[in-house]
Amino acid sequence: MKDNGPSTETTSTGEQNSRRAFIKNGATLTALAAAAPLVGISPLGALAARQPSDNMMHGIQIGAVSFVDEGVEKVLDIVQKRGAINTLFLTTFTHGRGLAGRQIPGQPFPDHGPKESDEKTFHGGNYAIPHAEYYKNTVLKETRAPELGNFDVLAAVLPAAKKRGMKVFASVEDQWRTGVPGVKECTEVDVMGRRTNTLCLFHPDVQTFWTALVTDICKSYDVDGILFFNERNGPLLNALGASHFQTIDSTRSTCFCEHHQRAAKERGINFERAKQGYLKVDKFVQASLKGERPSDGYYVEFNRLLLEYPEIIAWDQLFDLGKHQVLEQVYAAVKAVNKNLQVGFHVEHVNSFNPFYRATRSYEDLAKKADFLKVVAYNICGGERYANFIRNIGSTIFRDVPGEELMRFNNHLLNYGNEAPLDQLSTAGLSPDYVFRETQRALAGVKGKCLILPGIDIGIPTKATSRKSSPPDTYAATLAAYKAGAHGVILSRKYSEMNLVDLDAAGRAIREGVKLKT
Question: Are 432 and 380 in contact (CB under 8 A)?
């Protein structure tokens, strides 16, 4: 059978030798490897993952504009027949282009839908109909998305999807835009005292809005549940640029508003000391970016700051507390409507790359608040993102460490396999083995307390010189998740970015993945 993994042009000699060794380990292993060969994935691991499963969800994320552009029935035909999709994650609330809108500006259009950007008309908001009675106790009342007229994505898609036996989840994302009524009153305050564009998670109107929104959706529409997105990093990671998607601006650490101050006081955290600590972090970062090396080195100087100001860590933990309170409130609100509705949380990509961030995210703890977790395992864009992360942290706390050595060390910390070197990582992407390992890590972490649905990268935008999705890549990554024991997958980020030939490949892998479970 043809090998549908990545081409040997981006596969190391070590990886190829490793696969040959597996094939020589017996007839059973040879049969497994030939049935679905994946670079870096052990047939023994695939065999162990063959367990009966319930509630499998083969999902895809879709924004409202795709149904307006192409028609509800046509889109459902495509994703069901070509992609083997049985679960829709409909973007219901966001002001961000990651989940809503057509292809983002500057990227090639996919092989379906209009070849015209909606950059000038995109606004975002609630793509269903908000019911005013649920929003009486929050200033965030007027959130209806205006750009698609009277189109209501849930009302339009639910009847057609249910007739086909498809599940429907409403996706809700914490992404806002300035100018939305009420936003200005709820924004965070950075360490310099400036208002930002993000909303404070301790602000009572913000917390009330999220519970009102999911209650409204679950009471007003026959959805199967909610998928909640909150890709917000705490103040320390923001200050250090310890992520993959941001520039480093240590003056933008948040939040230092009155609501955070009150929450800190209730927990015995000294607000003034925390603020002083983050101002010191800002000076450290700015000096690091200029190459002004401390006498004891960058990492030692950074640790000295943490010892002198333990409030730095305490303030970062306070941010996480606010974030997790919102997750708990969303879960409770949905279950109050109907205990059989399911709640899932999107676990952002930085959780995969950053050992410091990983330490703040316990899968077992998250599983207590969720019925399923969408764990981001985007491997194609993952190469570019991981390289960005390494370069960011290599500009501050690890500036003394050469980039390639830093990445190899981080690979060991994260239990990554044989990935491409740093200078080739963006063009090579991460391997299907990365998807396999991240899926197994999540499954081990939740200890059977909730389902794991890895997010699979199809068409997520990258730079012109970085790897792009292809059918063999999509097939290999999708099947890797099933071989690792996933309860399904969520094809991401949005249908309006995906080529249908890649969706075909995902559908083939999903069908083969289901066979592994029987």
Answer: no
Query: Domain tally for the chain?
Result: 1
Beta strand ranges found along 53-150 (DSSP E): 57-62, 87-94, 125-126
How many CA atoms, within 13 angstroms, populate the side-chain half-sphere of residue 356?
17
pLDDT in tens, 118-158: 999 999 999 999 999 999 999 999 999 999 999 999 999 99
What is the domain range of residue 172? 29-516
DSSP secondary structure string for all residues of 356-409: HHHHT--HHHHHTT-SEEEEE---TTHHHHHHHHHHHHTTTTTTTS-HHHHHHH
Q: How many CA atoms lie within 13 A of 476 on its CB side?
A: 25
Of all residues in the chain, the percent with pLDDT exceeding 90 is: 85
8 Å CB contact between 414 and 385: no
Interval 83-87 mean pLDDT: 97
Give Dmax over CA atoms of the chain in angstroms.
68
Burial of 125 (0-12, 13-18, 19+ CB in 10 A): buried
Asked if the structure places residue 306 within a domain, the reply is yes
The number of C-alpha atoms within 13 Å of 173 and in the hemisphere containing its C-beta is 25
Q: What are the pLDDT digits (tens) for 350-362? A: 999 999 999 988 9
Query: What DSSP state is assigned to residue 144?
Result: B
Note whether residue 21 is domain-resident: no
Contact in structure between 489 and 79 (CB atoms under 8 Å): no
Report which of 158, 171, 159, 155 is spatially closest to residue 100, judged by C-alpha positions.
171
Give the tens place of pLDDT for each residue, 162-175: 999 999 999 999 99
Beta-carbon contacts of 241 under 8 Å, excluding residues fewer than 6 positions away, are: 247, 248, 249, 250, 285, 392, 393, 395, 396
SS3 98: coil
Give the three-class secondary structure for 480.
helix
Which CATH number belongs to the domain containing residue 296 in this structure? 3.20.20.80
Task: For strands 87-94 and 488-492, give the pairing.
Answer: unpaired
Does some domain include residue 5?
A: no
Q: The pTM is what?
A: 0.89
Residue 113, domain member (yes or no): yes
Q: Report CA-CA distances (Å) from 64 to 93, 164, 411.
A: 10, 19, 38
